[in-house]
Amino acid sequence: MEPHLSFRGRRALVTGAGKGIGRAVAVALSRAGARVTALSRTAADLESLTRECPGIETLCLDLADWEAVEAAVGAAGPFELLVNNAAVAELQPFLEVTRSALQRSLDVNFGAVLHVSQIVARQMIAQGVAGAIVNVSSQASKRALRDHAVYCSTKSALDMLSKVMAMELGPHKIRVNTVNPTVVMTDMGRINWSDPQKSAAMINRIPLGKFAEVDDVVNSILFLLSDKSAMTTGSSLMIDGGFLVS
Fold first, then answer.
1. Are 223 and 5 in contact (CB under 8 A)?
2. Over 60: is that where the pLDDT of 1 sits?
3. Are 241 and 212 in contact (CB under 8 A)?
4. Angle at which helices 66-76 and 112-127 pack, to 10 degrees?
5. Any stretches that span the bilayer, and where are they (predicted)?
6. How many structural domains are present in the chain?
7. Which residue has the higher pLDDT, 3 or 75?
8. Which residue pairs, CB below 8 angstroms and at least 24 apart, start in 195-200?
């Protein structure tokens, strides 16, 4: 994706940056002039990212480890831009949800967003700079999906957390928004949704008749990080092809 916006001189942290949407956001921000720190729990992914985009700095961390995150993110900052993209999808029928799946999902999809945002927002406030945070949510925060009890619930919690963050951080000139995509055609998305029989039921509920591409999400995130959305905070930007109106 060719950058349409300039982030020259701004520092950005992207979580879940080893693969998929997070990786594409990190690369796009770097190419648009930002100084980017990419966070992932997988060292091999970060190594390949730095080969693709040598200017990116990296943090190899498990976001569920609060003490390690506190130390590493605190030392790597301050940042003016934050994209909380890291997430896990532990898909189980409601009656079979396990405690470990619930805890892992809460730790990464909700707790890590709260914690990383606290660290970065405190840095922004201490520096006296305006900032922007984008949390990557999902259409699953708005619509019940089979086998997604925990995932839907954590993404719904993330949407409300983002609204409260927007309310409390607004006076410090920090904006907070979410993007809420439908199925996205990352490498993993193509594998999981390549079966026409499986994908047909979902696509038939999308008025535009297709799933989202990675750039659809990246472009929306860059817009919300940029000064082009200077009056937008506490909002959820649906990237669902109209799924929720059908």
1. yes
2. no
3. yes
4. 30
5. none
6. 1
7. 75
8. none
CATH of the domain at 56: 3.40.50.720
Signed CA dihedral, 187, 153, 38, 230: sign only: positive
- Look up the domain containing 219 and give its range: 11-239
Report percent pLDDT > 70 for the chain: 98
pTM reported for the whole predicted model: 0.95
34 inside domain:
yes
200 is a domain residue? yes
Angle subtended at Cα 190 by Cα 47 and Cα 81, rounded to the nearest 5 degrees: 50
Which candidate in 151, 177, 179, 184 is catalytic? 151
Judge whether 3 lies within some domain. Answer: no
- Would you say residue 149 has pLDDT above 90? yes
Assess if residue 246 is contained within a domain. no
Q: Within a 10 A sphere around the Cβ of 128, how many other Cβ atoms?
A: 8
Q: Is 17 helix (H, G, I), strand (E, B) or coil?
A: coil
Would you say residue 109 has pLDDT above 60?
Answer: yes
Catalytic annotation on 151? yes
Edge-to-edge strand list for the sheet holding 174-181? 57-60, 35-40, 11-15, 81-84, 131-136, 174-181, 236-239
Report the C-alpha gap between 38 and 23 in whole angstroms: 8
